[in-house]
């Protein structure tokens, strides 16, 4: 039997995201500043975002005959222009598909090709990778646009593109249905290749209203810092969509840099911050924090990876800033559960309560429905749950049940008071500083090396960085044995080889361990838990020995 959210149900309007964001009633004026570049101080008011978005939508429709369902790739670090071009694409009926700016040419080309992107937005410093990937994907340079503060010869900047559209009579926008897609975000899967997560207008509208219930701290009076990557669903949904919906001011930083981050908090008097555990670790332990006044922050929300109670206590003890946790995933648009501000101390370790309009099932390995208070895989159903994976019906079928529940792959339970606790993860994904790393992708790469006979990649938790690190367990190939290379030399060689072929967050920071064999089932599936338990026992033994 399903367990419904304890929150009262909320009404979800049957409108597209543009109408929801820009054509409804608001509690703040058009001239409210909603985005500020934390480096240059360039800013957008709500009206600026809307007018720039309309002009951009008109321009791409005129220039490229943009049609309903066309995909716009975005390959960029955080940029104050991102909301305007995002909503402009949606105004024209398009689908926005953000890509990790750390991607290699091969990785970006895969997403462009798989999504069928008709154009690509990027910044000047990322143009070289963008051009090379576009060529591989069959996208001409004329379909690449720049945003941000720099320009490059031969590539049009979106501000030049929209100049004529601003002066022309506004045309009617492309009205989308609630079931039409608006975002296509890519999430790594255990098959090794990233999967396109389809999110429609209803999903994002629903999740925005659900987030309102769980996070009332974000209001027109709030000031936030956008240090989370806006290509990730966590940043996209909360800092591009929800913040402007509420009229909050958001200070946009291109990436996390300690001095810049702390200066932004102090200068702009940040009141609320969406963060991830590695940044929270920095706040709890870095001596640099002592040089700044962070007292304006009233609450931090942490998600994308597990957060230990020790870190929560460390930040509270040092800065007197409370931290609440949330839980979600790309396939849920993303929020499933959020801790209410008043619960952060009494339910520490929980990820909060299931947000409105959702139902939860706790399921055993055998597929039996368990009492909600027992540990099992969590299945969830609601208007925020994605319709499926892009051009991948098999992956969709494996994830969804016939009655509309999504299998999250997370193990947990719900207390009688409605607090969700995540205790384990069925899925094999590694989370490095909130970024997903697919073991199978790295394993597939490793076994392509002449010196690697077999490989298994696991996530090893590093308390010093408060994150998992990908570590490879490698069986040497016969050729490697013939070479009689020292282990350290071979490890260094393989690590450098992998580093040159993957995005920054996928590097084998946990190192390489040589083993005699990789344990597998009769069907050939890697028995990761056996390998993980074996080396955890060995690591524990080393720790005990070191203390003696």
TrEMBL record:
Ranges where the AMP-binding enzyme C-terminal domain occurs: 441-525
Residue intervals of the AMP-dependent synthetase/ligase domain: 27-390
InterPro entries given in the database record: AMP-bd_C, AMP-bd_C_sf, AMP-binding_CS, AMP-dep_synth/lig_dom, ANL_N_sf
Entry keywords, A to Z: Ligase
Keyword field contains Nucleotidyltransferase: no
Gene3D superfamilies: 3.30.300.30, N-terminal domain of ligase-like (3.40.50.12780)
Pfam families: AMP-binding (PF00501), AMP-binding_C (PF13193)
Keyword check for Ligase: yes
One function term, GO molecular function aspect: CoA-ligase activity
PANTHER family per the UniProt record, alphabetical: AMP-BINDING DOMAIN-CONTAINING PROTEIN-RELATED, LONG-CHAIN-FATTY-ACID--COA LIGASE
Family label: Belongs to the ATP-dependent AMP-binding enzyme family.
Protein name: 4-coumarate-CoA ligase 2
Source species: Marssonina brunnea f. sp. multigermtubi (strain MB_m1) (Marssonina leaf spot fungus)
